[in-house]
Amino acid sequence: MKLSILDQSPVSSGTTAEQALKESMKLAKIGEVLGFERYWIAEHHDIAGFSCPAPEVMLGYIGANTESIRIGSGAVLLPHYKPYRIAETYNMLATLFPERIDIGIGRAPGGSAEATMALSDNFLEQVRRMPESVDELLHFLNHDFPSDHLFSKVSASPRPAVLPEVWMLGTSEKSALLAAGKGTAYAFGHFMSNNNDPEIIQTYKHNFRQSGMLQQPHCILAVTVMCSETSERAEEIARSSLLWGIQRSKGEEGKGVPSVEEAKRYSFSIEEQKKLEKMKKKMVIGNPKTVKQNLIDLQRLYLADEIMIITITYDYGERIQSYKLIAEEILSN
């Protein structure tokens, strides 16, 4: 089983964005040593508790401090940007860090309506134009616009020896069909989907069209995982993350990820308890052996080629320990 890391660069209560970003770099370095396939960092805008609005900046930092692990965006929120600019940026990263760069493409706003308005114009129109924008991006990367196209002589410089890998990220049949139709790899966000239907990945695979960039379909399943030496401790650290999820849903996330002690003291209302149980159903929580079996079951159910793990804990050391325990249980055996 191939395992990868998805990092939202969370800020824990009582810490700073600077610390969170440095911890993200540390996670990527340790992930490389542990044998994870790739490390992706997410893009968020003006969301308290998430510290990375610019994955491309962090990727330069992380790439310079690692040697072999693939690194990428999870995701570039394409409706905010011109495809040419994204092609230039990731071609440059691929030139600096050969055969290591992924471009994960998403269509979400990544922040509030006000932040979206501050960042880009006509966002909803750009979402509607997503298929055309993806086409433009692929043409810029491959340098293969038709000869009569306006951009046929425009080069997304520098041109790397090996192009970045393009991934479509999503949680629906619509995103699966877009990835399949464009011949890109696909990452399904199990951790954030309200429709965890394995058929979505099968729709992608059945409709995949071979492209110059990818000869056969390749799919990642992105899952929230909390692993500790004991299932009891895993449940405790998961409760902290779950509380933060509930706080975010109420707009009360400003302090960052709450501590385990705060989560223990918190009295969930009946409605919040229902939300908590619903959120837990999307998560894998337990000791290393339990987590391994659950991930094997998910991979078999979804027929995913790779599992990408997202872990948010109050204590950054426990986050690293979770990834370490999973790697020792799965990648070392």
Automatic annotation (TrEMBL):
Q: Which keywords label this protein? A: Oxidoreductase
Domain called Luciferase-like: residue spans: 1-302
| GO MF annotations, alphabetized | oxidoreductase activity
The domain of life for this entry's organism is: Bacteria
Enzyme Commission number? 1.-.-.-
| InterPro entries linked | Bact_Lucif_Oxidored, CmoO-like, Luciferase-like_dom, Luciferase-like_sf
The answer on whether this UniProt entry bears the keyword Transit peptide reads no
- Say which family it is in: To bacterial alkanal monooxygenase alpha and beta chains.
Q: Which NCBIfam families match?
A: oxido_grp_1
Put simply, this protein is called LLM class flavin-dependent oxidoreductase
The taxonomic lineage of its organism, from the top, reads: Bacteria, Bacillati, Bacillota, Bacilli, Bacillales
